[in-house]
Specification:
Elements lengths: L2 H16 L18 E5 L2 E3 L3 E5 L4 E7 L3 E6 L11 E4 L5 E7 L4 E9 L10 E7 L2
Parallel strand pairs: 3-9
Antiparallel strand pairs: 1-2, 1-4, 4-7, 5-6, 5-8, 8-9
Length: 133
């Protein structure tokens, strides 16, 4: 693009901005990926459905997400929903304390929803927490 075209493009953009148009200098890119969420229990990270063996109960749970998200969870084996208890992960790859597991054979289920307009939702992870033999 030559200088004349650059100046013309800038003039058009400034005119559109001045007229109250919804012109965006850098259009937003739609977020189409779900957050990658995980639970940290007894120092081990779980991001897939599995069984977690812990040596000491109660065990604190910490949630982590690859991007800002709200994580909804249950500790009774029921499917979580947006009406379930939740924690907010404020920034990428940060951790937030969640529930404390007090009983053996607890089933923790959780999923994350990001803050995009489409509300991308992760798959539900189911972790059975049992006391180590």
């Amino acid at each position: 693009m030559n200088l004349k075209n650059c100046i013309l493009a800038l003039a058009i953009a400034l005119t559109l901005s001045a007229c109250g148009s919804n012109f965006e200098w850098f259009p937003a890119v739609a977020d189409s990926t779900s957050p990658r969420v995980s639970a940290i229990i007894a120092g081990k990270t779980f991001s897939n459905s599995t069984t977690a063996f812990v040596s000491i109960l109660p065990a604190a749970v910490t949630f982590n997400s690859s991007e800002p998200a709200t994580i909804y969870y249950t500790t009774d084996g029921n499917e979580p929903s947006t009406a379930s208890p939740s924690v907010v992960i404020a920034s990428s790859n940060s951790s937030t304390p969640g529930p404390t597991i007090t009983l053996t054979d607890t089933i923790l289920k959780f999923f994350g929803i990001d803050k995009s307009p489409k509300l991308n939702q992760s798959t539900t992870v189911s972790i059975k927490v049992v006391k180590s033999p």
